[in-house]
Description:
Distance between the termini: 39 Å
Order of helices and strands: HEHEHEHEEEHEHEHEHEHHEHEHEEEEE
Number of strands: 17
Shape: globular
Helix content: 25-40%
Oligomer: single chain
Radius of gyration: 23 Å
CATH class of the largest domain: Alpha Beta
Strand content: 15-25%
Largest sheet: 6 strands, parallel
Amino acid sequence: xxxxxxxxxxxxxxxxxxxxxxxxxxxxxxxxxxxxxxxxxxxxxxxxxxxxxxxxxxxxxxxxxxxxxxxxxxxxxxxxxxxxxxxxxxxxxxxxxxxxxxxxxxxxxxxxxxxxxxxxxxxxxxxxxxxxxxxxxxxxxxxxxxxxxxxxxxxxxxxxxxxxxxxxxxxxxxxxxxxxxxxxxxxxxxxxxxxxxxxxxxxxxxxxxxxxxxxxxxxxxxxxxxxxxxxxxxxxxxxxxxxxxxxxxxxxxxxxxxxxxxxxxxxxxxxxxxxxxxxxxxxxxxxxxxxxxxxxxxxxxxxxxxxxxxxxxxxxxxxxxxxxxxxxxxxxxxxxxxxxxxxxxxxxxxxxxxxxxxxxxxxxxxxxxxxxxxxxxxxxxxxxxxxxxxxxxxxxxxxxxxxxxxxxxxxxxxxxxxxxxxx
Length: 423
């Protein structure tokens, strides 16, 4: 959307209070995301009343779910556009500027947008790292999840189209590609004769200027030995797998309508570690889901101790209208959900510290990301086991480094989430 608007002659401003047009792209996956979106919208309406803002536009999942209600509740917003309107955003903004009085404030269509290489992008990441969306939507129908209704069913991009965009990103300076989708392991299952995710990875690895390729948002049920072997067989693939399991108790997993049970999850973890011995595993969990008794939570706690994930995040269950789980009776209070989350995060902090300390003395390839101005650690970066934003970072002792450089570093210290290293 940013690229489409710059093609129309807009410039991106460094701060919202200088903007003539403010566009807020929203998430509506869980309560906290909706609250953050609404808070941001309210902040921006104040700028519209007292700043240079002429038009306020809200796009994405929030209007896709609540468009008509939002228009009534937030009259200051000039346009609400759903997830299917990404490629048409410039046209909608032109209509706002036309001054017409008959403009429809809420435009919600079928959630059928699918990225393609013909859509220009204006990267918000540093030039050496880029996200690459390989598919859109999800057909898994987990009982707690609104994604299928706001993003549509799973639909994969053609491999040739993904490769075209990857080539363009590499030509513009990207050295690390991060593959994303609502479920990356479902890639190609809707396309006849698709090479699937393993084949796509092999094709991407042939782009010579790419240094790292990282995989996020896999579904444990879709992780195979073939995929692990591909990841292990080429040094361009970061030995890093993000595999949200959500829970380990079979009854809870069944109520969640997850495609994997506890046996499958344990088998996948063991296979990943056998085929990729240095793999870093990330997962996410949900606590307080309907049916999670104290005994079932204890089973989850013991599993976290057993599995020893390198990175782990915990969400408290958010009851979302329109989902199957919303009709289920939940006996877990918000206070108890938070208590369970805190227990798991404290446990994971000790596990992460232990794993990070085991890396002290090792040599790690690190991607330099920024200068800090700090005399002891003048730079920050990430090693192969650290994804941007969601994991820790590596603080670097060194001289005359440039963001985008890859440097060999010896890990000298570690805390629960970050590493400290010298070139």
